Amino acid sequence: MTRSKPSVALFVTCLADTMRPNVAFAAARLLELAGCEVIVPKAQTCCGQPAFNSGAKSASRAIAEQVIKTFETYDYVVAPSGSCAGMIKVHYADLFPEDPGWRLRQEDLAARTFELTKFLVDIMGWKPTSTVFPAKVAYHDSCSGLRELGVKAQPRVLLSEISGLEIQPLEGEEACCGFGGTFCIKYPEISAAIVADKTKTIKASGADVLLAGDLGCLMNMAGKLSRENSNIRCFHIAEVLAGMADGDGI
């Protein structure tokens, strides 16, 4: 008996939806190449992280309940963002401390929620076979993916399969870029100082392209590089893996 394709609900993320839809389209293409049936639920909204980080637990719980109801019927939930995946997988547990019914639903969804590159490598065992991207690339490890979800080796495994791509050593590759969601709004001076340190190391790496797995981090670093008149192009890793990294990037 032939097993049907796993159903994967793509969590598009707010930033991809509003700022760079190409990331979501690239993620969908990668999941299809990996042998998945990809669904994009129309009822999806924000994961609730901004409200959660601001202490608005009642609002974030309401959002979490809506997300759980929207996504719980699929085999997997995959997001091209460690930040959003981390919210669902790790932090939703804090929203249902005394509600066993919702807690069980939350735990079940958390077990089936993954960041994109981790899902492709650890669950599907997929690698790109014909992608070409001739460039010297620096890769930034975003905080949520790295520290909450264990995303470190997976993007590098995938990038190592791309023809013409050279990964450049990046000093402080695991250091925060200064974005931190609402952190950059609440503490703009500190955020600006952190991203200035980050772009200094990016330029020193000799890379002509910067990649990351979280669009928020990438936009933060890309904006600073642009203000510094740098020619370094910035792409989400999904765009490169899917062969959809065209033009000047973000």
Explain this structure to me?
The chain is α/β, with parallel strands linked by helices. The chain has two domains: 116 residues, no CATH class; 114 residues, Rossmann fold (3-Layer(aba) Sandwich), CATH 3.40.50. 48% of the residues lie in helices and 14% in strands. The chain has 13 helices and eight strands. The strands form two sheets. Strands 2-1-3-4 form a four-stranded parallel sheet, sandwiched between helices. Strands 6-5-7-8 form a four-stranded parallel sheet. α12 links the parallel β7 and β8. α7 packs across α9 and α11 crosses α12. The chain is globular and about 50 Å long.
What secondary-structure arrangement, pairings included, does this model have?
Blueprint: E1 7-10, H1 14-18, H2 21-33, E2 37-39, H3 49-53, H4 57-71, E3 76-79, H5 82-89, H6 100-111, E4 113-115, H7 116-123, E5 132-140, H8 143-149, H9 153-159, E6 163-167, H10 183-186, H11 188-204, E7 209-212, H12 215-227, E8 233-236, H13 237-241
Parallel strand pairs: 1-2, 1-3, 3-4, 5-6, 5-7, 7-8
Helix pairs in contact: 5-8, 7-9, 11-12
